[in-house]
Design brief:
By secondary structure, the chain is α/β, with parallel strands linked by helices. It contains 4 helices and 7 strands; from the N terminus they run βαβαββααβββ. Strand 3 and strand 4 form a beta hairpin. Helix 1 crosses helix 2.
Length: 144
Amino acid sequence: MKKIINSEKEMYKFASQLAKKLKGGEVLALQGELGAGKTTFVKGLARALGVREVVHSPTFILVKPYRIRNQKIIKTLIHVDAYRVAGGEDLIFVGLDEFFQDKDTVMAIEWAEKVKKILPRARTKWIKFYLGKKLNQRIVQIKD
């Protein structure tokens, strides 16, 4: 599936639509160059799931969990930024692999291609973000 997004508001709406389909246990593997919309997507996803905190990309802390209080199924959103890691072993070292087993957790990993080897294949959904032809336009492609 390919979707053209023309604004931040549209990206939030797109993320919200995807959030409604999540059941827990999914890993959203986000790919795309700097500025392509990965963090904006995660902000929209977090909002749609009920996260009340301000969401920032965890570039220097690598992993940021957000508690979700108003949902019965999904209780945690784990936001990961793998931009500064050498490989999946770095994320295993900080305990990320423990979250792969949580059925009440959704994980969104920016720069996921860098840690592809450690991701659970059956539960990983790859989402690629591209810069569009217009200033605020983004193209999002989900591999099913």
